[in-house]
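Subject: Protein record for review, amino acid sequence with backbone structure tokens
Why sent: The fold of this protein is of interest and is recorded here as tokens.
Notation: Tokens come from a learned vocabulary of local backbone shapes, not from coordinates.
Attached in line: The record itself begins immediately under this heading.
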Amino acid sequence: MLAVMSEKTIALVTGANKGIGYETAAGLGALGWSVGVGARDEQRGKDAVAKLRAAGADAFGVPLDVTDDESVTAAAQLIEKRAGRLDVLVNNAGIAGSWPDEPTTVDLETVRRLVETNVIGVIRVTNAMLPLLRHSAHPRIVNQSSHVGSLALQTTPGVDLGGISGAYAPTKTFLNAVSIQYAKKLSDTNILINNVCPGYVATDLNGFSGTQTAEQGAVIAIRLAALPDDGPNGRLFDDKGVVPW
């Protein structure tokens, strides 16, 4: 198995059983990569893998709850046993809570839950996968962020980001800050880490109110996952280019 897998790029996409995560996995599979479908719900993960395989992708299931230490450790062990390395990690899993929600009235338990998934979950998964990424010749990390996490955009008069957010938007700002620190820490390695803004995508995260499809939203994550060795590092991108932090 290891000899066969060494011929392919090995990717893991968290939260890949639906929405942008699924379309990201599909896009990476279309490149000929072997794609791990990270999913908290095992049956939904299996269904997504079956659908991807039916479309010709080399997909495999990775049971993965980003909020659970044991689950993340088991996922890393599964990939190590299957491939011996990881080339690309796409931290896509995330939750939104209610929207809009004002900081003066936001439920504190909601804030904790969103931080646990959207920020701590990314740290947990990234740290567990780093030893496998270090075995790759061309390692990439892509974190799913959002325009609403940009402090520059949030403070620009006239920019409409969908109302005040006391929980979700700050978690994406937090994620951006954490990603910058990873880029600094890993600057002496060949690991490239970047954040992406998929745009206003119609998913269950926003009650399918978005104006873009999940397939369109996955384009920039796929692009950054396949960056050349001299590609950008420690930046925030959407499909038009660099987004200010």
In short: The chain has nine helices and eight strands. Confidence is low (pLDDT under 50) at residues 1-5.
